[in-house]
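Researcher: Go.
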Amino acid sequence: MLDRCGMKKILLTIIVLVVVLVSWMLLKNKEDVMVNTSTTTVSPTPDSTPSTGSVQASLPQVTPTSVVSPVVSKNIITYTDSGYTPNPITIKKGEAVIWKNESSNPMWTASAMHPTHKVYPGTDISACGTQTLMPMFDACAGVASGQSWSFTFNNVGTWGYHNHLNSSKFGKVVVVE
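Model: Structure:
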């Protein structure tokens, strides 16, 4: 039978193991998360009038969780007031795509389907703003004009996406081996 001192040692060992395991998981997943190299705050202006289907006026002040890392990419999609170009784009598994906002409004690029963003594996709008350890195909916030957002595709397939702030603007990324 264990005495009180033995129980304390077992409990302390379990706590140390849990801390080590959680730390390892955070460091392991840190490699997959994009580094926020700039801060882009989106706040609605009092005189802005959102278009049909837009949620711009109800946006809280947020900073995108993934902004373009300093890695150079040949896979650049430009977003203008007319939509996303090129569309579709074909890339290889493991490559990143950069969405550059050259429109007059914020863009919030996210996995299909609007409004849940659940088509790309591991992506769900309900996880935006949480401490999720998985990178998501969701900017989770409006990206201001002149700013960019990046996502690395590790799943082969054809992945639809849209601008959550104007869901009539959409595109596709085809990921091949």
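Model: The radius of gyration is 20 Å.
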